[in-house]
Amino acid sequence: MSRHxxxxxxxxxxxxxxMAERHGITSVPLTVVLGDQALDEGTEISARSLAQALQxxxxxxxxxxxxxxxAETYRNVAEAGAHGIVSLHLSAEISGTYDAAVLAAREAPVxxxxxxxxxxxxxxxxxxxxxxxxxxxxxxxxxxxxxAEKRAAGTATYFYVDxxxxxxxxxxxxxxxxxxxxxxxxxxxxxxxxxxxxxxEKVRTASRAVARLEEVVAERAGAAEVDIAVHHLAxxxxxxxxxxxxxxxxxxxxxLHVSEVGAVIGAHTGPGLxxxxxxxx
Length: 281
What we know:
Elements: E1 4-10, H1 17-23, E2 25-28, E3 31-34, E4 37-40, H2 47-55, E5 60-63, H3 67-79, E6 82-89, H4 97-105, E7 112-116, H5 122-136, H6 141-154, E8 156-160, H7 165-169, H8 175-184, E9 187-193, E10 196-203, H9 206-221, E11 226-232, H10 236-249, E12 253-260, H11 263-269, E13 274-280
Parallel strand pairs: 1-2, 1-6, 6-7, 11-12
Antiparallel strand pairs: 3-4, 3-5, 8-9, 8-13, 9-10, 11-13
């Protein structure tokens, strides 16, 4: 049995399955509560089903994994041969997932380092990949954590939503900002800042918001070697167009991933979401 440092993350990393499998990254699912059904993200509810439920105004909430689920995951990973675990998760400012992982880590059979990346979606995914690549090169737990934290420090996440209502309902953005956006009929461009969702700019139309998102991402990328992820919910044409334009505008682009977000993030952003992650190598 090989001994190694294992990488654990959660389902909001939205790593392509082939990449997670290639690097041996284990994902712990968050839960979407649809009506009276509690469903695991990624396996029991799809983004499409979630979007349809939101469009029909069905009640949707989300919840973190329990400490017991993390504890079982850590035991299984240890039994598979890991001598240490790096557990990387979405921002503790917007989810209790990190706290649940910390509780479980105290009882794990091998050392576990739990990291609040302050990020979500492929911003978190890129951190998990950096940690996994370090571990694959026989890196220690500390070296894998450092690789993830370095990647997190340089990574930026920007996104556009058609309405702030979903973020307001979920308590992820202040009610005053949501009211202001509705009152002025503006289209919000948002960012993750210190793990929190903050308003970056307000523009008047959806087309201008998408154009400005492209500009912000290209400016952030500059000429450096970067990976970019474009995310959407029920807006594939919009995402494909943004991806094509970024391919032309970012000279240092290495990898570009285009994917629909899962049900957890979708529940808090609503259909029409368009986001981009810029992560320097």
